[in-house]
Amino acid sequence: MTKRIVVTGAAGFLGSHLVQELIEEGHEVIGIDNFLSGSEDNLAHLKDRFTFVEADACSTDLLKHTSIYDIDEIYHLASPASPKYYQQFPFETIAINTDGTRNMLNLAVQQKAKMVYTSTSEAYGDPLIHPQSESYRGNVNTWGPRACYDEAKRLGEVYCYEYFTRYHTKVKVARIFNTYSAGLANDDGRVISNFVNQALKGEDITVYGDGTQTRSFCYVTDTIKGLKLMMKRDEANGEIINLGNPYEHTILNVAQLVKRLTGTKSAITFHPLPEDDPKRRKPTIDKAMELLGWKPEVSLQHGLEQTINAYRNTLQKSIKDKKG
Questions:
Q1: Residue 152 counted as domain residue
Q2: Which of 32, 56, 238, 278 has its CA 20 to 30 A from that of 301?
């Protein structure tokens, strides 16, 4: 059945992937983005295949926009997600995850639509419990450079809770762990895009800290599948669900794997660890498996191979274009 679906943050990394999949499934998509951290290039290949509204998802005018009617589903993905961007735009990051989330919840109430809110593994902060289940309340610093993102996402979850309990809104919260693919901009600042681009350019691969800190990397197709299952399953209403890969890797091991897969001669260099950077990050996904029947399918090596090939092609095309 064809649905009318709103996707905020449509020009972002996850948003553009989701928009493409929903279009290919035959749905009518209304994408919303103000290009704070998203890029028009992410949507260029989808031009004229969906409705795009250039706007801030915090704007209450969206509730009466002429294109936003008979909405069945809302994916609220809008927010800077890389430390590079949310530390550059802290107030905007706070606003989109609080005022923007409430605005989209009001739209859900108005349209009687279902909603998925994308929160983050950063809600666990620098965790003292490992691995992290949804019941863990986190170890988050409210007074630091990452707080604008971490705490705003947590407050966004509170808005979802209040609308679910007070207004019976069919809202679900996805705590997303590190997601990657070639769709990440080469200057995004997240670890996979950094490592791959540095390796392909023959630059030093920069590891922060001693590289023993861990992350759990999930390929974008797995994350998108999880989000769509959350929207589909009524069992997920009013639930917070981890979406991430339960296989844990040290940052140094990832750097070494990227170096081997690219065949680069780049050196691995070590730099001071940023403030509040989590030491370990690994989800339990029992809830996702039980409620959604979801688990990641793409291994880190396979995902990196696809990412490296795509970045290599983009880099070669850029060099060719510069030569004329």
A1: yes
A2: 278
pTM of the model: 0.93
**Where in the sequence is the domain holding 284, given as residue range(s)?**
4-178+220-244+277-296
Q: What is the 3-state secondary structure (H, E, C) of the chain?
A: CCCEEEEECCCCHHHHHHHHHHHHCCCEEEEEECCCCCCHHHHHHHCCCCEEEECCCCCHHHHHCCCCCCCCEEEECCCCCCHHHHCCCHHHHHHHHHHHHHHHHHHHHHHCCEEEEEEEHHHHECCCCCCECCCCCCECCCCCCCHHHHHHHHHHHHHHHHHHHHHCCCEEEEEECCEECCCCCCCCCCHHHHHHHHHHCCCCEEEECCCCCEECCEEHHHHHHHHHHHHHCHHHCCCEEEECCCCCEEHHHHHHHHHHHHCCCCCEEEECCCCCCCCCCCECCHHHHHHHCCCCCCCHHHHHHHHHHHHHHHHHHHHHHHHC
Active-site residue, from 85, 117, 124, 149: 149
Q: Clarify whether 149 is annotated catalytic.
A: yes
pLDDT tens digits, 73-124: 999 999 999 898 999 999 999 999 999 999 999 999 999 999 999 999 999 9
Structural domain includes residue 149: yes
For the chain, what is the domain count?
Answer: 1
The CATH number covering residue 95 comes to 3.40.50.720
